[in-house]
Design a protein that fits this description.
By secondary structure, the chain is α/β, with parallel strands linked by helices. The chain contains 26 helices and 25 strands. The chain has four domains: 224 residues, Beta-Lactamase (2-Layer Sandwich); 36 residues; 155 residues, Reverse transcriptase/Diguanylate cyclase domain (Alpha-Beta Plaits), CATH 3.30.70.270; 242 residues, TIM Barrel (Alpha-Beta Barrel). The strands form five sheets. An eight-stranded mixed barrel has the order 17-18-20-21-22-23-24-25, surrounded by five helices. A six-stranded antiparallel sheet has the order 3-2-1-6-5-4, sandwiched between helices.
Length: 750
C-alpha cells in the first residue's frame, strides 16, 4: 500500500500509539459513564427509600382514620340501620377533613355508598374480593382506571355489616412532589399490575437510568411498582466539559504522535534513503560518495556500503581495463578499438574516419620458430610502433596476427598514402630476445559508416584477408566480394513465410522406367517464387537453410506435402514412387528420422530418400546406422549426384542403397564424344554388380535416352521426359497418358 519506508513507519508508530491513546480515552469515558450511573442509581435509591417511607406513613394514617370511623357508635348504628343519608354525610365530612380522594362504605351484599352521595352503587368486584379476603386490606388498587392508595376497616355491629374504605389518588401532583424531593431532575411514575399480573409501564426516556420500588397490592391484588427514571444524557452532562477536554487532549496527542512518528521515521530512514540512492547510482555506474553522520547500526551499514562501493569501483576499473586489454601482449584489444570507433563517430571536423587492419604476414610460422612468449613480445613491440599520435587515434589487437588502427583523412587517396607510409615505417626488423625478427606487413582499409554490415573492424579484417588472397600489400574493403550476411537471414525469414503463403512449393519431375517404358515415379523438387527477388534457385536457399538450422523444418514441410500429394495421385489412379532429397545434416538427427518414418506411415515402401555420398563422410558410423534404420522401415535409399564429388568405392559399398543416380554433368556430355560415355557405362555396370538400379539425370534429347537404354540404365530423368511441374500439372500429364506406354506416348503427353 505504502511504497516508502518512512510512511510505513509513521503509519505503524502513529497508528499503534494512536490506538493506545484511543483505548485510554475510551477507558476514561467508560469509567466516567460508570461513575455517573452509580451516582444516579444512588440518588434514585435514596429517593425511592423516601417515597417508600412516605407510602408507609400515609398508609398508616389512612388505616387509623378508617378504623376510627368504623368504630364510631353513631356511624355503626347508621350502618346497621342502613341510614344512607347519615352514612354519606359522615363519610363526606371525614373525606373533606382528611383531604381524601375517595371515601365509601361497602356492605356485605356488595352494595356501596359514596361520600356525599346517598345513592347506592355496585361495589367493584376487585374491592369486594380484597375486603372479604382481608378485613384490613391496604395497598395499591386501580378503580375505574385510576391508581389509589387505599385501606379498609371492618364495621362491626356487633357482627360485621360492612367496610369503610379510604383512598388517596396517586396523581401527577403527588409524583411531582416526590420528584421535587430528589436533588436530581428525575421522573417518577406508577405502574400497577392488572388482574393477569401484567404491568403497564408509562413512557420513559430510552437512554435512561431506572430504579423500581415494589408497592403492596390491595388484598390479594398483584403488586405495583414505583418507577424512577433519569436520562443518561443528564447524568453525563456534568462530565461533558471534562470529556471534551479529554477528547481535545487525545486529538492533540494523536497529532503530536503522528508528528513525532514522522520525525523519528524520517531520522531513521534518511540514511536508508541515502543508501538506496547510492545503490541506484552504483548500479548505473555513477561514483558513490556521501557523508555518514550517524554512529548507530545504520551508520555502520552506510560506512560498510561506501567501502564496498569504492572497492567495486576499483575492481570495475580494473575489470574494464582488463576487458580492454589483451592479457598476453598488454595491448588494447578489439573492444577498446570499438569504443574508440564509437567515440570517433561523434566528431564532426569534416574528415572521414577509417579503420585499418595491419597484419604481420606468416606470423604463425614465426611463432613456431621463436615460441609464443617471444611472439607476444613481438606483437607488443609492433603495436608500440603503430602508436603515432600525429595521425593515429587508437589501436587494438583484433586478431592473432593483426592490429587495428583508427585514422582520419580527407579522402581515400590521403588514407592510402598514410597507411602506405605507416607500413613502410613499421616493416623494420623488430628486436626480440636479442635477435632481429624480419616482418612483412599487409593492410586492409574500410571507411567507418560507409556500410551497415558487418562493422568497421570486421570490414577491415576482411579487406586484409582480401589483400593476402590477392597477394597485395594494401586493399580497400570490397563489399560486393564479401556478400551480404544480413541478406541471408532475411532470405530465411522470407522462406519460412513462403511455406505458409504458397510462394515456396513442390514441383514434381517424372522418372521414366526404361524397361516398363512408363512413368513409375516422380521426384519432389523445391521451387520458390520470391515476391521481390523472383525465382530463387534451390542450391542457394537450401545451402543457407543448412547453415542457419532451417533445413529440418524445411525438409519436414517437403515430406508432409509430398505425402499428401502422393496420396492425391494414388487416388487419381497413379501409384507412383515418391523421391525426396534428404540433407546430410539430418542423417545424424534420430528425432527427425523417427518423425519422418511416422509421417510416411504405411506408404514407406513407396518413398525413396535421396542422399549424397558426402553426407556420410563427416560421421559415417552414425549416418550408415540411420540409413539402415530407414531401410528397415521400408524406405528406399538412393545415392544422389554420383560422380559430382569425390566418389568413394568404399562408401558406395557400405551404403545400403537400392538406387544410384548418375549426376547430370556426365549425361549432358554424352554426345560430345568425350570419355563421359565410358564412365557412365562403367558406373552402370558397377551399380548393377552391387545390386542397385541406375537412374540417369539430365536427359534432354531422345538420342541420349536411347544411348542410356543401350548402356543399361534402368530409369531416366530430364527435360525430355518432363520438366518439374506443380502437382496438378503433373496429374494432368499422367492422366493424358491414359495407360499408354513408350516414348511416343510421353512425347504426345508433353
Amino acid at each position: 500500500m505504502f511504497r516508502k519506508l518512512k510512511t510505513k513507519l509513521t503509519v505503524a508508530y502513529g497508528g499503534l500509539l494512536g490506538l493506545i491513546l484511543i483505548a485510554v480515552a475510551g477507558a476514561v469515558y467508560l469509567s466516567v459513564q460508570h461513575t455517573a450511573k452509580e451516582n444516579v442509581r444512588a440518588e434514585l435509591k435514596a429517593t425511592a427509600s423516601v417515597y417508600e417511607r412516605l407510602w408507609q406513613i400515609n398508609q398508616q394514617q389512612l388505616a387509623e382514620n378508617a378504623d376510627i370511623m368504623a368504630r364510631d357508635f353513631g356511624f355503626r348504628e347508621a350502618v346497621a340501620t342502613q341510614d344512607a343519608g347519615t352514612i354519606a354525610s359522615a363519610l363526606d365530612n371525614l373525606r373533606n377533613r382528611l383531604g381524601l380522594s375517595r371515601a365509601f362504605l361497602v356492605f356485605e351484599d356488595g352494595s356501596g355508598l359514596e361520600a356525599g352521595n346517598s345513592a347506592t352503587f355496585e361495589t367493584p368486584a376487585i374491592v369486594m374480593d380484597a375486603v372479604k379476603t382481608n378485613n384490613h386490606a391496604s395497598g395499591l388498587i386501580p378503580i375505574s382506571g385510576i391508581q389509589y392508595q387505599a385501606v379498609a376497616a371492618p364495621v362491626m355491629a356487633p357482627a360485621r355489616v360492612g367496610w369503610v374504605i379510604f383512598a388517596t389518588e396517586l396523581d401527577a401532583a403527588e409524583l411531582h412532589e416526590l420528584e421535587s424531593l430528589s436533588p436530581i431532575n428525575l421522573k417518577a411514575s406508577i405502574a400497577a399490575a392488572d388482574s393477569n399480573g401484567n404491568f403497564s409501564i408509562p413512557d420513559h426516556p430510552v437512554h435512561a437510568i431506572s430504579a423500581r420500588t415494589p408497592l403492596d397490592g390491595f388484598g390479594e391484588l398483584p403488586a405495583g411498582v414505583l418507577l424512577l427514571d433519569y436520562p443518561m444524557s443528564a447524568a453525563m452532562a456534568p462530565f461533558k466539559p471534562m470529556l471534551f477536554a479529554i477528547a481535545a487532549l487525545a486529538l492533540a496527542g494523536l497529532v503530536a504522535l503522528i508528528g513525532c512518528s514522522w520525525f523519528i521515521s524520517n531520522s531513521l530512514t534518511l540514511p536508508i534513503t541515502r543508501l538506496d540512492r547510492a545503490t541506484r547510482q552504483l548500479a548505473s555506474g555513477v561514483p558513490v560518495d556521501f557523508e555518514v553522520e550517524s554512529i548507530d547500526e545504520i551508520g555502520r551499514l552506510a560506512k560498510s556500503f561506501l567501502q564496498m562501493a569504492h572497492e567495486i569501483e576499483t575492481r570495475e576499473r580494473s575489470i574494464v581495463k582488463m576487458s580492454l586489454t589483451d592479457s598476453e601482449t598488454l595491448l588494447p584489444n578489439r573492444r577498446a578499438l570499438q569504443q574508440a570507433i564509437d567515440q570517433l563517430r561523434v566528431r564532426d571536423d569534416g574528415d572521414s574516419e577509417f579503420c585499418v587492419a595491419i597484419g604481420i604476414d606468416r606470423l604463425m610460422h614465426i611463432s613456431t620458430a621463436i615460441g609464443q612468449s617471444a611472439t607476444n613480445e613481438l606483437l607488443a613491440k609492433f603495436g608500440a610502433r603503430l602508436e603515432r599520435p600525429d595521425f593515429i587515434h587508437s589501436i587494438g589487437l583484433v586478431g592473432a596476427d593483426m592490429i587495428g588502427v583508427l585514422i582520419t583523412a580527407s579522402d581515400w587517396g590521403s588514407v592510402a598514402k598514410k597507411v602506405s607510409d605507416l607500413l613502410h615505417a613499421a616493416s623494420e626488423p623488430i628486436l626480440v630476445a636479442g635477435e632481429k625478427i624480419d616482418i612483412t606487413l599487409s593492410a586492409g582499409i574500410c571507411q567507418i559508416g560507409l556500410h551497415d554490415m558487418p562493422g568497421p573492424v570486421d570490414e577491415a579484417i576482411v579487406a586484409l584477408q582480401q589483400a593476402r588472397t590477392q597477394r597485395r600489400q594494401l586493399q580497400i574493403f570490397d563489399a560486393e566480394t564479401y556478400g551480404d550476411p544480413g541478406g541471408t537471414l532475411s532470405l530465411m525469414s522470407d522462406m519460412v513465410a513462403g511455406l505458409s503463403d504458397g510462394s515456396v512449393f513442390l514441383a514434381y519431375q517424372p522418372k521414366y522406367d526404361c524397361r516398363q517404358q512408363a512413368v513409375r515415379g516422380v521426384e519432389a523438387l523445391l521451387r520458390w517464387n520470391h515476391p521481390i527477388r523472383g525465382s530463387v534457385t534451390p542450391d542457394k536457399f537450401v545451402e543457407y537453410a543448412e547453415e542457419t538450422g532451417h533445413i529440418r523444418p524445411l525438409t519436414q514441410w517437403v515430406i508432409t506435402q509430398s505425402v499428401s500429394d502422393r496420396e492425391r495421385m494414388r487416388l487419381a489412379g497413379h501409384d507412383l514412387k515418391m523421391s525426396v532429397n534428404i540433407s546430410g545434416r539430418l542423417l545424424g538427427d534420430p528425432d527427425f528420422l523417427d518423425w519422418a518414418i511416422k509421417e510416411i506411415g504405411q506408404a514407406s515402401d513407396r518413398f525413396c530418400f535421396e542422399v549424397t555420398e558426402t553426407a556420410v563422410i563427416d560421421d559415417p558410423e552414425t549416418a550408415l546406422a540411420n540409413i539402415q534404420r530407414l531401410r528397415n522401415a521400408g524406405v528406399e535409399i538412393s545415392i544422389d549426384d554420383y560422380g559430382s564429388g569425390l566418389s568413394s568405392l568404399s562408401y558406395l559399398k557400405q551404403i545400403p542403397a537400392q538406387e544410384l543416380k548418375i549426376d547430370k554433368s556426365f549425361v549432358l556430355g554424352l554426345q560430345s564424344g568425350s570419355s563421359d560415355a565410358l564412365l557412365i557405362k562403367s558406373t552402370i555396370d558397377l551399380a548393377h554388380s552391387l545390386g542397385m538400379s541406375v537412374t540417369a539425370e539430365g536427359v534432354e534429347t531422345e538420342d541420349v535416352l536411347r544411348l542410356l537404354q543401350v548402356m543399361g540404365a534402368d530409369v531416366v530423368q530430364g527435360y525430355y521426359i518432363g520438366r518439374p511441374q506443380t502437382r496438378d500439372r503433373t496429374l494432368a500429364l499422367l492422366n493424358s497418358l491414359s495407360g499408354e506406354t513408350g516414348l511416343e506416348a510421353i512425347g504426345r503427353a508433353r
